[in-house]
């Protein structure tokens, strides 16, 4: 158990990844998170932001342009891999062990997200943790044409992989932020969880409303069950 815990901390400790593995570590994490279902727990947003922080200041770990190039390439390749997995494996991938770890509720939300937003979900999902891992696979399973998927994949990959590191780069010049990287990481994780928490809350509220509506439909005006107050047909003569 300790070895599993240690592994989890090592692949989610964004400062450790950036300082110890550099661009190679960033590339592998982004590819796994966006291209492989088992990477749904990886910290793509916070990793990109902290990597952007480390490109600024007097002693940058690596140049910003190199970070952007690596992030864009592996984000796009990752989504393309997820799409291909969906095309090859089809629905069985949603019954795999990785899918069970993600959970039916999250997969259901991703399916609704893709169904309601269409191809634009490929772009928008980039900015929603876990959803961005599942949507490319759903695009492949749904039969979305490759020539249609690729442009949306590139647009979303460039936007996500550039906006977050550039924000980190410019904010890295703020002394308070530079001195409180750990606090920034916690805030980023919290912000990443907020959309999922809101969806969960909306789902629970909708479920209560649906249950109340269903209960009202089967209850009479005086609070009695309409099924028990219906007239009984006379016996056949």
Question: Biggest sheet: strands, sense, closure?
Answer: none
SSE ordering: HHHHHHHHHHHH
Number of domains: 1
Radius of gyration: 23 Å
**Alpha plus pi helix count:** 12
Principal-axis shape: globular
Mean pLDDT value:
78
Helix percentage: over 70%
Note the gap between the termini.
Answer: 75 Å
The structural class is: mainly alpha
Beta-strand share of residues: under 5%
Quick overview of this protein structure:
Belongs to the DedA family. With 237 residues, the protein is mostly helical.
Describe the 3D structure.
- InterPro entries: DedA-like, VTT_dom.
- Residues 42-169 form the VTT domain.
- Keywords: Cell membrane, Membrane, Transmembrane, Transmembrane helix.
- It holds the Pfam family VTT_dom.
- Residues 211-237 are annotated as: Disordered.
- The chain has 237 residues and is an all-alpha fold.
- It has one domain (2-211).
- The chain is 75% helix and 0% strand.
- It is built from twelve helices and no strands.
- It has helices at 2-12, 14-35, 44-54, 64-89, 97-102, 104-117, 120-124, 131-141, 146-171, 175-179, 181-217, 226-229.
- The longest helix is centred in the last third of the chain and has 37 residues, at 181-217.
- The protein starts with a helix and ends in an 8-residue tail after the last helix.
- The relative contact order is 0.12.
């Amino acid at each position: 158990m300790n070895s599993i815990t240690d592994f989890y901390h090592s692949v989610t400790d964004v400062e450790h990844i950036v300082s110890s593995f550099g661009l190679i570590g960033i590339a592998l994490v982004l590819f796994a998170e966006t291209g492989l279902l088992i990477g749904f727990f990886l910290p793509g947003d916070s990793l990109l932001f902290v990597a952007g922080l480390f490109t600024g200041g007097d002693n940058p770990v690596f140049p910003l342009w190199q970070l952007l190039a690596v992030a864009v390439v592996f984000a796009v390749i990752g989504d393309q891999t997820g799409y291909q997995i969906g095309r090859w494996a089809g629905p069985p991938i949603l019954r795999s062990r990785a899918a069970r770890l993600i959970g039916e509720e999250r997969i259901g939300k991703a399916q609704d997200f893709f169904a309601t937003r269409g191809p634009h979900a490929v772009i928008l999902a980039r900015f929603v943790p876990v959803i961005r891992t599942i949507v490319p696979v759903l695009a492949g399973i749904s039969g979305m044409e490759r020539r249609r998927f690729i442009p949306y994949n590139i647009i979303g990959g460039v936007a996500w992989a550039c906006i977050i590191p550039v924000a980190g780069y410019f904010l890295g010049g703020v002394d308070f932020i530079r001195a409180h990287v750990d606090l920034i990481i916690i805030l980023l994780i919290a912000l990443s969880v907020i959309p999922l928490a809101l969806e969960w809350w909306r789902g629970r509220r909708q479920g209560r409303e649906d249950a109340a509506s269903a209960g009202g439909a089967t209850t009479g005006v005086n609070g009695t069950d309409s099924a028990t107050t219906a007239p009984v047909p006379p016996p056949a003569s």
